[in-house]
Amino acid sequence: MTDIALSPELRPLGKSPLMVSPLAWGMWRFAGDDVSAARRLVEAALAAGITFLDTADIYGPDNDEPFGASEVLLGRVLAEAPQLRDAMVLASKGGICMGVPYDSSPVYLRQAVEASLTRLGVERIDLWQIHRPDMLAHPAETAVVLDAMVAEGKIGAIGVSNHTPAQTRALAAHLESGIVSTQPEFSALALAPLEDGTFDLALEAGHAVMAWSPLGQGRLGSGDPRPGRMQAQDPRTERVIAALQAQANAYGVSVQAAAYAWIMAHPTRPIPIIGSQNPARIAEAADAFKVRWTRAEWYGVLVASKGENLP
């Protein structure tokens, strides 16, 4: 039986003309005032072949910084080294409003996109995503403003994040520009997209999948399940780490790289969003392409996560 192999080649982002790397780098923890250090992180991602960068306007408050701080920092990097802009596909997100919490009304979304463009110092955001669904927004009204901003060249393509399949379909039904991507949480510890229809819809509609928190909110980052070597974890996490570690050992990579590879092996070819702010760890992510999976090995990780055999 043929093993599942992974390719480092660029691929289209859904049905868009954007060509993206099969790994992305996320900027939730991209913070601080040191532009030189920030630039080194961006350059480390690009040097590792990670040309797909994902930020959001809400990234900042979780780091005790203002709303939009991560975008501002990236904008300062791009102002210092404008050649980096052409080397990346730039994604951002909006629609979370401090204290509201969600706003996908036409007026707010236009304000959010234009504010992000200003903070980033760019003329266009290649992929702009609604960060979380606003249950008080009619998708037809949301679609009108998104289509308008695509026509104006402010947005290259539209995606959604943390949307159910039904919410994604409802918006897509009104969008002339279409939806090219979806961004759910997915890891060997967060399996919902496998079962809630998210991946099925992606295969049906041709959506690219961007997987946030691919290390299970950091729980899969400790590795080495030998007695006394692993940080204290719950039994489920220990089982998953042990299964991933076996694969990592077989290919001479870290457990983190094996975790990324497990995600990428699904037929939707999810793009793990690497969250590390360590240049060496960013570079190490490319080791995921060394890993191959048999079906039995891939399902072994799934069984370890579920804690029971599949029917």
From TrEMBL:
Source organism superkingdom: Bacteria
The protein's name in its UniProt record: Aryl-alcohol dehydrogenase-like predicted oxidoreductase
SUPFAM superfamilies: NAD(P)-linked oxidoreductase (SSF51430)
Domain NADP-dependent oxidoreductase: 23-297
Cellular component GO terms, alphabetical: cytosol
InterPro entries reported in the protein's UniProt record: AKR_Detox_Biosynth (IPR050523), NAD(P)_OxRdtase_dom_sf (IPR036812), NADP_OxRdtase_dom (IPR023210)
Any one Pfam family match given in the protein's UniProt record, by short name: Aldo_ket_red
